[in-house]
């Protein structure tokens, strides 16, 4: 097993999903919702969330689902922006740019982690919001947990001061860079540019305008023989970069690497790119067109748990989340 690919994840089941007007100005991936009843749109989004949870469970990933019925949290389906977990028992809580997203941070999620996983330290950076400094978790950073590198495309949601503070506290090497689209606009979140797996990484290096920085990124991503497969800007626009490698279990108990992404992202990949992924992992693709209206995709929905379980919790064991759900703490089966 690799530190890069967690075997347990957190999802938030937002029953009041809507496209967040507070994030529309800087999220070029966000789209206007169709002219339908808001309740119908939210119900469709909930079905898509459940489909992601079901697909991950079917692949043998432990899935902890937290329910959210708060209409003031339209983006709560994307918990990776406020929380991250790390090998060695570290948890980070992060400052959010949009004011209406800041109360997505939930104590019951932290309590579940402390109760069922080995948490040593929680570092809360949310106080930086008062100073206008933001670092939106593993949306703002793409983290290589094996080589201890945190990659970050600078934007007003991803501040280098906060990155360096995080890296000092969590013992990661910071690697900040600029990334822009063809119109010259900064990419708002690093995790739409690409993802890092155990044996390969997919990244839109063409969106990094500085040639020397682009080559430095290529060299660092390819450490220990990892294959780097480049994405195009058009594929990034289809959320091909917004994927994540996870570890599931086969029915016989053996581990299985998977790459979770949306069906839209999967359709955008060329045959050679698909073949590169499938040499080391199985692709699990789920259709989530309603959720993608908000400018995020499957990776944004997943907060990976890179923590050791306490006795009685076996990561990757499909029944584990049912036992946890029965204990409460806001969990649903």
From TrEMBL:
InterPro entries per the UniProt record, alphabetical: Amdntrnsf_FN0238 (IPR014541)
Gene3D superfamilies, per the entry: L-arginine/glycine Amidinotransferase, Chain A
Domain of life: Bacteria
NCBIfam families: citrull_CtlX (NF046062)
Protein name, per record: Amidinotransferase
Organism: Agrococcus pavilionensis RW1
Lineage, highest ranks first: Bacteria, Bacillati, Actinomycetota, Actinomycetes, Micrococcales
